Amino acid sequence: MAVSMRDLDPAFHGAGQKAGLEIWRIENFLPVIVPQSSHGKFFMGDSYVILKTTASKSGALRHDIHYWLGKDTSQDEAGTAAIKTVELDAALGGRAVQYREVQGHETAKFLSYFKPCIIPQEGGIASGFKHAEAEEHTTRLFVCKGKHVVHVKEVSFARSSLNHDDIFILDTKSKIFQFNGSNSSIQERAKALEVVQYIKDTYHDGKCDIASIEDGKLMADADTGEFWALFGGFAPLPKKTANDEDKNFDSHSTKLLRVEKEKAEPVEADSLTRELLETNKCYLLDCGLELFVWMGRNTSLDERRSASGAAEELLRGPDRSKSHMIRVIEGFETVMFKSKFDSWPQTVDVAVSEDGRGKVAALLKRQGVNVKGLLKADPVKEEPQPYIDCTGNLLVWRVNGQEKILLPASDQSKIYSGDCYIFQYSYPGEDKEEHLIGTWFGKQSVEEERASAISLASKMVESLKFLPAQARIYEGNEPIQFYSIFQSLIVLKGGLSDGYKKYVAEKEVPDETYQEDGVALFRVQGSGPDNMQAIQVEAVASSLNSSYCYILHSGSTVFTWSGSLATTDDQELVERQLDLIKPNLQSKPQKENTESEQFWDLLGGKAEYPSQKIVRDAESDPRLFSCIVSNENLKVVEIYNFTQDDLMTEDMFILDCHTDIFVWVGQEVNSKDKMHALTIGEKFLERDFLMEKLSHEAPIYIVMEGSEPPFFTRFFTWDSAKSKMHGNSFQRKLTIVKHGRAPTVDKPKRRTPVSYGGRSSVPEKSQRSRSMSFSPDRVRVRGRSPAFTALAATFESANARNLSTPPPMVRKSQLYPKSVTPDSSKLASKSSAIAELTASFEKTNNIPRSPKETNNKDTFMSSKMESLTIEEDVKEGEAEDEGVPIYPYERLKTTSTDPVAEIDVTKREIYLSSEEFREHLGMAKDAFYKLPKWKQNKLKMAVQLF
Length: 946
Hints:
Elements: E1 20-27, E2 30-33, E3 47-55, E4 61-69, H1 75-91, E5 97-102, H2 108-112, E6 140-145, E7 151-155, E8 167-171, E9 175-180, H3 186-203, E10 209-214, H4 222-230, E11 255-260, E12 263-266, E13 282-286, E14 290-295, H5 301-315, E15 324-329, H6 335-339, H7 355-366, E16 393-400, E17 403-406, E18 414-416, E19 420-428, E20 433-441, H8 447-463, E21 469-474, H9 480-486, E22 488-492, H10 498-507, E23 519-528, E24 531-537, E25 549-554, E26 557-562, H11 568-581, E27 588-591, H12 597-602, E28 623-630, E29 633-639, E30 652-656, E31 661-665, H13 671-675, H14 677-687, E32 700-704, H15 710-713, H16 720-723, H17 729-739, E33 780-781, H18 786-795, H19 822-825, E34 828-829, H20 832-844, H21 851-856, H22 858-867, H23 889-892, H24 914-921, H25 925-928, H26 933-942
Parallel strand pairs: 4-5, 9-10, 14-15, 18-22, 20-21, 22-24, 26-27, 31-32, 33-34
Antiparallel strand pairs: 1-2, 1-3, 3-4, 5-15, 6-7, 6-8, 8-9, 11-12, 11-13, 13-14, 16-17, 16-19, 19-20, 21-32, 23-24, 23-25, 25-26, 28-29, 28-30, 30-31
Helix pairs in contact: 1-5, 3-17, 20-22
């Protein structure tokens, strides 16, 4: 589309450059900006243009344009608003979706901008009315409709306006009454209360009484009597009569019309296909309730105006008052539009570029307008974070047929691709122990054991009264939460389960189960010691990748291979994983392009291999859907601009982030439906409602109301007091409206974690993995990897606490502290036993001291470590210097020949003087502790303090 300056209204210069809402009112056929203080205030005699700009995670700005027509606006004003919307789209590069909004029949997306509602006022600029002036309060009656967004309409203040199906709000001078029709839903009643709150704040300065009136309860209380007295006394309500607003358009047949010379002519075709739409023409797709205007990329601005005019003419016909007009540009069609066609290709070759937007930007720049927002912004680069406390207790089971076998802690970090696993992770929540129960399916696992894993995990969740969050994870699609919980993970080929062995025997395929003395190749990946994996791959040269490091072994021969694009951090992870896979053998380092013949011989010769890093799909902007299951058919309704208040306790919702999906289950959902939550998530992935090519193996989380994990609540501005309230949605909202906020709940004393079966999750010797302190009266010990637990067991005296069964041999580099999130860090402290272990380990260079020598230091270490808490125990970002001894850097680094003994080896930097801290770490302590934990660890690794 050609762009010229004469097409751009000066009022639109600079529009859409940053996220937010911009509104113009049509005055004398020109758009005039509405100040932000007046957003949400609409007059019935006016027309408006509304621009919503959203910044996506990719850095791109997305635009939605709406034009709103008051019921008393003139036809000329309405036409001007429609044309100006097309012009505004042109100014933004011709990509925006455009919506026609008619008073009383607005789209859910439009109303979501002005939550909880809009209440248009009498008056208008050009319609001959005067704007309503502030005057004595008049009693008004409103009808409210809607479960997710509320349409509010003022009706005649008369008993005849009431009915049993809807909700009514009676606004008097001193009290606001909400009348709940007996046939209305709980969710509708709860949403209407938000309108009550809005009226109270807007028209009563937040000072008036609230009363709830139940239809059918005659004279139940003083409020009920007062309500009916305002209508002249009680009398039976009439049955609701059908009107134009209640007509259903579902039976309307879909028609495609081509617009030529300002006239719409039907397109004859046996079926609707994408091929019918020509890029140099405009079309109307009439679906009854929706009327779409499709504009080809090669159409002119005048042609687009003509198409919009033809659509407006069509909507002036009878029975079209409820119809929504939506205008879309070729290449930027909405999912709803595409779904109306019998076939729509996954990708359409459209010449979409920045040209249109770039030309507009160039023209405006010459006019002195800042055009920064017209072009794509730089994407926001975010390091993925687990958003879960990593100091908890982990239990892992391998599924074998219909049973599950608990793994000893020393084996928890080794899982097989041919098996299925169940894990239960218990961690400290805000005021109670939280649980995450999940299943992991290896790529080579059999379907029978996958079904068994789901069934066994569901029974565990049910036995804990559906409180734990649940996860379904496939190999190759693991989220960062999974890796952070396990910390160090080795994924081996083959399997140990009966199901895998049976499959190998029946299919007569080679058994690839890992053998320690065989040839094996591992790709090493991760971001640090608390998130590292070794994945066994085919032992051939094509499995290599220049962006990674690898471990190759054959019997007693071990090679490490570093790709040319691998970092020093990657090489550090190889050394750590080598200590777990082949702890007793010396490796032969190999660098890309300088490999030995023996290395290539083990891989069967040289071959081409990739260099591109394997990257998980980026998390997209989250979208929330309400779920309705009818006759095993899943229907979803999108909730736009969602907040926590949109999560109704009677319903299930799906939060779609593309890489993961969350199924949120309200407390009032019945137990039978709760059991089907995972099935609903799977159906959502299968249906792919947004046509975003969702993977059927994307992680699914089941989240229970009241036990929402932080990796779910991060998508909201979360108030935990609301999710812990009791009662249905209406009862909860009524409490909040009457008291101004959710009631605070007394936090119970933290209870001992409970595992499956209702027993304490304190495991036996072979089961303990993470937390060394389970008593609610004792401080929590920072979590450790299974390798560390095994190491600690080696050094414990016979009378000390029981720890995990140690593996045959453990090396120094297996001691990795787990990361601690800022919220959980205040719960963490160092146990004197662990500190004594680590100190003795550092001092003696892997030679344990005698139990007698160890015990003699218990008292000293106990008092010492009470003062040496980790940094997260104090204020965030504040260095803890008081009472901490200072040692020289040469004695604190990990390679020191004269190491300091009695220190916390996970926080060596706190013993540095301020001068040496700045010299070696390049910043002051306060600045250092404001960095993310992973970045702190990287800096410490670089200077041998970790």
